[in-house]
Design brief:
about 140 residues, alpha+beta
Length: about 140
């Protein structure tokens, strides 16, 4: 994924060009047909996905009941918590139309953090803002 595209993602927009280039090294692009799973609830998180085109829906299953958490399109970042912990996914992400995503594996992300520790502080600020917004009843992105 070009560095400019990474820079357009709200989660990463505060990063310098050099930091973005470090993150871009490990990215891969994936294509999904309608109904394909981008992520599955319960699977170990191995990175994050940035939706570059199409739409996906996020669904959480609890006690046999599905609860839709939202629909997301281009520029949305999903699975970012896996960058911080090694816990299983808390929801599934399913393509609702032909969709494309860029994946950043957790090991490449963590390597970029070691190379550029200032990325951590910038991302913590963005994630903190998201948490505050959610606590106040706002949406995810």
């Amino acid at each position: 994924m070009p560095v400019d595209a990474l820079a357009s993602v709200p989660l990463l927009s505060s990063l310098s060009r050099k930091e973005l280039e470090s993150l871009a090294k490990g990215t891969t692009q994936r294509d999904y047909a309608p109904g394909d799973s981008v992520m599955r609830q319960g699977d170990t998180g191995v990175g994050l996905a940035i939706i570059t085109s199409g739409k996906v829906r996020v669904v959480q299953t609890k006690d046999g009941q599905d609860r839709e958490l939202g629909t997301f399109g281009p520029g949305s970042v999903l699975g970012e918590l896996s960058l911080l912990d090694d816990l299983p996914r808390t929801a599934s992400v399913i393509a609702t139309e032909v969709s494309h995503a860029v994946l950043i594996p957790v090991w490449d992300f963590r390597a970029a953090l070691k190379e550029h520790p200032e990325i951590s502080i910038k991302l913590l600020a963005v994630l903190s803002q998201r948490l505050r917004k959610q606590e106040q009843g706002g949406a995810h992105e």
